[in-house]
Design brief:
With 411 residues, the protein is of the alpha/beta class. It has helices at 51-56, 73-79, 82-86, 98-106, 155-165, 183-210, 229-241, 263-273, 288-296, 306-312, 344-347, 352-360, 364-395, 398-409; strands at 6-9, 23-27, 30-34, 36-40, 62-65, 92-95, 133-135, 140-144, 149-153, 169-171, 218-223, 251-254, 280-282, 301-304, 315-316, 323-324. The structure holds one RNA strand of 74 nucleotides.
RNA sequence: GCGUCUGUAGCUCAGUUGGUUAGAGCGCUGGAUUGUGGCUCCGGAGGUCGCAGGUUCGAAUCCUGUUAGACGCC
């Protein structure tokens, strides 16, 4: 199979972190220098951040969602794929819709619990008859109560949809378990995810053959297993060794609801088993401490809604620690969001007082302005963090960099 | 001058035939937010019910007076 997709490692091994690396992912829409944070544009655009803004803040990747774009997949395909259709002409990822198995199913209407006090507590799960996503071995039935629309998503349909959308990198359709699911349930869900991965890989090979006129789209196999290390190791062995007609996955997605406490051991367990020469994407995490753990254990790319969502809610990232811009103490504060920031918002001189007023205004146009200025700021903060981590890995001063960052940020 | 209507939280208002510590939305204020059903979610402060009397076991609610505003009529 012809692939215009590859991964190269550009750093020397670090004895303190044997799995850590900096690299380059070569895709049909350009190179991704890793570690990198992918901006999340679920519906094909990042909320309140334009493609021009993305270039300005040195974003490298947009990650969209095959489930949310399902109805528009044919149009996107006809337009020439996600990059052209969205106006963002750089590298793109699509997620499979696997996250929605949980977020619209057992976790519907709840903030994703990452607290171990909820572990194994099935009473914390949404009742099946209240869920908008019902899972079985065949796939997932998504229901929309407003339109009465029902979509039966299967691994085959997810992959076919993602091929239509045409992102450079796709994710296999997986079942994400909730922290409240039991060990036994995780065993069953993991086996289901393994079978779905195989079915998806088979469909991927079929679709690739059907679309020879298009650039090759890479497919990452996704690893699950809850917070159980034995299941995580099994997932890593199963997915990394999986082949269909001699073809395997191009990279790996590290998925699941992962607590800060368990993150290092879970990531280490998986990445020690995964082959070193393929890229790994850590799904859904972007807080700086999580990124540090991720890169130290071998993750290359990250994505998360937190920087943009938290920006819209007034949670601002800054080198000396995050803060809530809505607090009254910033009402007359003429300082920048972060005096050391190179984002367009801080470079333009917007003050905390000014941005707070926009954010708290009753005018929807002011909101939009604030959301744009604050989202680009937070996004740039995490992107810059990844850029600096990459440079530190390559130039051999990672420990010093991390120490200085953490000392200020988590003071 | 007379008549009618209206005065309840910073704002807009609910308050059932009088019945425990008078509610809501917005605003204010604090927190949450991790592969985006989110201008979302959770919490807190804030009122001697225009004022003064009266009836009653008990009044935001009924009666009288008074005051402020709106409207109408001479």
């Amino acid at each position: 199979m012809q692939r215009d997709f590859s991964f190269e490692i550009v750093s020397q091994p670090n004895p303190n972190y044997p799995l850590m690396r900096a690299g380059i992912i070569h895709t049909p829409h350009g190179d991704i220098k890793t570690p990198n944070f992918n901006l999340v544009g679920t519906h094909g655009h990042v909320k309140f951040i334009s493609p021009d803004d993305m270039w300005t803040i040195h974003a490298q990747v947009m990650l969209s969602n095959g489930y949310h774009l399902f109805r528009r997949a044919t149009v996107i395909s006809a337009t020439g794929g996600l990059a052209k259709w969205s106006g963002w002409n750089g590298p793109t990822f699509t997620d499979s819709g696997g996250f929605q198995v949980m977020s619209l199913g057992s976790g519907l209407g709840k903030v994703v619990s990452m607290d171990m006090v909820d572990a194994n507590d099935e009473s914390k799960l949404r009742e099946p008859d209240e869920r908008m996503a019902l899972v079985d071995d065949e796939g997932v039935e998504f229901r929309d109560p407003y339109s009465a629309r029902i979509i039966k998503f299967t691994p085959e349909l997810s992959i076919e949809t993602q091929h239509k959308i045409g992102a450079d990198i796709m994710m296999s359709f997986d079942e994400l378990t909730n922290i409240s699911d039991t060990y036994d349930y995780n065993v069953r869900a993991l086996e289901r995810t393994r079978r779905w991965a195989e079915r998806g890989l088979r469909e991927h090979i079929r679709q690739t053959a059907l679309r020879k006129d298009r650039p090759y789209q890479a497919l990452y196999g996704v690893l699950q297993g809850g917070y159980y290390l034995d299941l995580r190791a099994k997932a890593a062995r199963d997915i990394s060794s999986m082949t269909v007609d001699g073809e395997g996955f191009d990279g790996f997605g590290l998925g699941g609801v992962l607590t800060k406490q368990d993150l290092p051991s879970i990531l280490t367990t998986m990445c020690e088993i995964l082959p070193n020469d393929k890229p790994r994407h850590l799904l859904g995490l972007s807080h700086p401490d999580d990124i540090f753990v991720g890169v130290e254990t071998g993750s290359d790319t990250f994505d998360c809604v937190a920087p943009t969502r938290e920006a819209r809610h007034g949670r601002i990232y800054a080198m000396d620690g995050n803060f809530n811009l809505k607090r009254s103490e910033y009402k007359d504060d003429d300082n920048l969001l972060d005096k050391d920031c190179d984002c367009p918002t801080c470079q333009a001189g917007h003050t905390k007082a000014e941005l707070r007023a926009l954010l708290k205004s009753s005018d929807i146009a002011d909101h939009a302005k604030a959301y744009n200025l604050l989202s680009t700021h937070n996004a740039r903060f995490i992107i810059r963090l990844c850029e600096q981590i990459r440079q530190a890995i390559i130039d051999g001063y990672y420990d010093e960099y991390k120490q200085s960052f953490v000392k200020r940020y988590y003071r």
